[in-house]
Amino acid sequence: METILIVDDDDFVVEYHTHMLSSHYHTEVAKDGETALKQVDSCPPDLILMDIQMPRMNGYEAAYKIRLAGHTMPILFFSNLSSLEERLKAYDAGGNDFIAKPVDEQELLMKVSVLLKAHKARPGNAEEVAVNALSDLSSLGYVMGFYRDSFQCGDLSHLARAVFKLTQGFGLKCSLIIRDQKTNPCFFDDGITKNIDAALLESLQGAGRIMAFGKHRAAFNWRHASLLVKNMPVHADKVGTMRDYLAYVMDGVEQCVNKVLLEQQLRQTIVQFKAQNTDIKAGIVTLIDDLEMQLDSLFSSMSMDNELSEEAEQQLITLIQAARASADTKLE
């Protein structure tokens, strides 16, 4: 049975969360950040459920030191502090996700399950994978493959998959937002929605081009897309090369987004034109039907033996002129 370490100084909260989790997981408790550090070092849990506001050492500092010690288990923060700023602090400290108090049992169980599955499915040493990918000519192949795939993309989801195919080849863990002027969808390389990632990506619009977050994280921020990388290599001779490759890739993403958006606009224009053309045809048919009815009425009032009177002739001319004006209006 997987072990979850609950870190909180409030006995009631600890008991509450233990009750939620105990049917599915083995639970252990630490009353503050310092105690949590010792327990993680001596017997690492599979996941940490971490409060933020605690005496002696808060959750941010504890998470940062846990990551500094090399531990990679998921950290799920929970707190009354649920603003975007607090969520970003949790992310920067090394957290994987955030849940606001009061905690809903179903949401908690779902997030814990998702984080544990994602952690088990992660590649081996991502740092080593990234370094190896950059150490030979395969890196150029990844980039060229991305450009080949991306220009065949017909929609934004297809484009996101092409980006993740490349980043996974480099051993990187990434999230992506594409700004399509409507929904601005977020994409995640493992298919699992991450609220902290999404909040950070949404906040990047208009920010710097390339930004570093702590030791391993970086954001590549272009006009129509932002890429969040959570495990950049730290080797001095590799991180610069990786940034160059990813900047080159983001240039390609920008071009592809422009292409996809233009294609969507063209398709919408064609649909609108077809709809307008249908309306025009229907209007002209109605116009002709009305004209025929009026002509029938006019001719029925005339004797077959009589020539067209001046008054009837004027009525006919007026009908034709009105029909022509109406047709011109519909064709404008």
Word description of this protein:
InterPro entries: Bact_response_regulator, CheY-like_superfamily, Sig_transdc_resp-reg_receiver. The strands form two sheets. The chain has a five-stranded parallel beta sheet with strand order 2-1-3-4-5, sandwiched between helices. Strands 7-6-10-9-8 form a five-stranded antiparallel beta sheet, sandwiched between helices. The chain has helices spanning 11-21, 33-42, 59-68, 84-92, 105-121, 126-134, 138-150, 156-169, 195-203, 236-300, 310-331; strands spanning 3-7, 26-30, 47-51, 75-79, 97-100, 174-178, 186-188, 210-213, 217-221, 225-229. The radius of gyration is 33 Å and the shape is elongated. The protein is of the alpha/beta class. The protein is 57% helix and 14% strand. Strand 8 (210-213) and strand 9 form a beta hairpin. It has three domains: 3-121, 3-Layer(aba) Sandwich (Rossmann fold); 126-264, 2-Layer Sandwich (Beta-Lactamase); 270-331, no CATH class.
List the helices and strands and how they pair.
Layout (H helix, E strand, L loop, with lengths): L2 E5 L3 H11 L4 E5 L2 H10 L4 E5 L7 H10 L6 E5 L4 H9 L4 E4 L4 H17 L4 H9 L3 H13 L5 H14 L4 E5 L7 E3 L6 H9 L6 E4 L3 E5 L3 E5 L6 H65 L9 H22 L1
Helix pairs in contact: 2-3, 4-9, 7-8, 7-10, 10-11
InterPro entries: Bact_response_regulator, CheY-like_superfamily, Sig_transdc_resp-reg_receiver
Organism: Pseudoalteromonas rubra
Protein name: Response regulatory domain-containing protein
